[in-house]
Q: What sequence folds into this?
């Protein structure tokens, strides 16, 4: 057991020897010891309900028994070969993963992170189309590598040096904060409080944002483009949802200009949105390339790119190699995660507990002035504070209704205390 002095010691080492650009969400970050399913435990033995899951990474639960046992077995057998050789784990995993995807998305590249997956996806769009320009949304986060930084459009991640040539940002179709959008625009159990003039099947906000998208295509890029990258729900920027039907029209416009569509499912994939396994399915589109990471490995470092045979063949003109991508341990982890999602009914749980939690949080929005918006789908939840801060909730998908009640209560208490303090000032 660590003595209490150890905390200060750990903090000192962190300050002295670990990347100083680590932004901590806490003035005093937790010193963690152990995790089990939706719970984390610190060195003092305190238990925490984990509503952030290492930023949406722990999908089926910390140290999920099934995933842990499968990993331990593989660790004792074979860690690494590089996939120039064969090992059943990679074949089995590729077959299993693609069974969750519609045709023609059947070719898998395994990577070690989301940035790497998006790097490769961007590369594929350029190699295949022989065009260069890629469009992305303002507010998106797609990675921190020099290539993906071009499509990461969040100020604090920009460092003012050359990166990501050929990337143009377009207006984010944000129905809460943007100029258009309102009560019936988004696919969420909770709508914005702003009224809109839409009726069934007619969304003026969607049309306005599509006009903006066309404007970007007409003014910022050449006639033909390489592609477009977007998350089905924007994650890091605060669970931002687009008007229904927007993405479908955007995909069509991109394809008319020769581009490929990338769906970044790093946060929205693997059942998190509840109603569907992949976020793109909630928009009724089929992308040309899907990228994955985080929840794919429940915390194990891995990522994937899935595309069509035709697109993959363009990369096969020359060599492409990844030392660790598709190692047997990662493949076994990935397969066990897919099994756990199915066996534990986690997609359904995301839908049930997520919807319940969203509706409970919506009651707080109606009561507290500082809660501007409650949005999301399944266990991908955002609460926008009108002082401009967004609170993001993306717990392991195994949390229960009881946990949701506890979380809502904690949030309510925090809001009440905030209001009391504000009144005292
Ligand atoms: N895409 C999205 C949507 C992400 O949220 C992230 C990480 N926050 C990434 C890509 C990059 O993943 P990684 O940190 O594994 O490189």
A:
């Amino acid at each position: 057991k660590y003595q209490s002095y150890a905390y200060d010691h750990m903090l000192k080492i962190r300050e002295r020897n670990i990347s100083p650009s680590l932004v901590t969400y806490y003035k005093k970050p937790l010193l963690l010891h152990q995790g089990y399913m939706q719970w984390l435990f610190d060195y003092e033995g305190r238990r925490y309900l984990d509503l952030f899951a290492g930023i949406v990474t722990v999908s089926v639960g910390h140290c999920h028994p099934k995933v842990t046992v499968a990993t331990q077995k593989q660790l004792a057998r074979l860690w690494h070969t590089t996939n120039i050789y064969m090992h059943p784990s990679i074949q089995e995993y590729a077959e299993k993963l693609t069974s969750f995807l519609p045709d023609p998305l059947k070719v898998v590249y395994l990577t070690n992170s989301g940035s790497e997956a998006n790097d490769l996806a961007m590369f594929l769009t350029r190699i295949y189309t022989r065009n260069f320009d890629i469009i992305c949304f303002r507010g998106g986060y797609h990675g921190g590598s020099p290539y993906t930084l071009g499509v990461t459009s969040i100020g604090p991640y920009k460092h003012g040096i050359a990166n990501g040539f050929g990337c143009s940002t377009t207006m984010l179709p944000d129905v809460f904060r943007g100029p258009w959008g309102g009560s019936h625009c988004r696919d969420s159990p909770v709508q914005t409080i702003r009224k809109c003039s839409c009726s069934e099947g007619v969304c003026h906000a969607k049309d306005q944002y599509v006009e903006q998208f066309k404007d970007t295509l007409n003014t910022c890029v050449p006639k033909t483009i390489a592609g477009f990258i977007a998350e089905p729900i924007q994650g890091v920027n605060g669970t931002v949802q687009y008007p229904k039907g927007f993405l479908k029209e955007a995909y069509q416009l991109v394809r008319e200009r020769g581009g490929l569509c990338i769906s970044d499912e790093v946060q929205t994939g693997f059942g998190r949105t509840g109603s569907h396994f992949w976020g793109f399915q909630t928009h009724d589109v089929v992308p040309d390339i899907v990228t994955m990471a985080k929840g794919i490995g429940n915390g194990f470092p891995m990522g994937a790119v899935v595309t069509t045979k035709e697109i993959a063949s363009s990369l096969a003109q020359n060599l492409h190699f990844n030392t660790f991508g598709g190692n047997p341990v990662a493949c076994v982890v990935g397969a066990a995660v897919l099994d756990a999602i199915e066996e534990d009914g986690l997609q359904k749980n995301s839908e049930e507990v997520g919807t319940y939690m969203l509706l409970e949080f919506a009651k707080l929005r109606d009561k507290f002035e500082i809660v501007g918006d409650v949005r999301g789908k399944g266990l991908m939840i955002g609460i926008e504070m009108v002082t401009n801060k967004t609170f993001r909730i993306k717990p392991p998908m195994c949390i229960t209704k009881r946990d949701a009640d506890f979380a809502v209560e904690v949030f309510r208490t925090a809001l009440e205390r905030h209001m009391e303090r504000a009144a005292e000032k």
Summary: The mean pLDDT is 94. The first helix runs from residue 5 to 17.
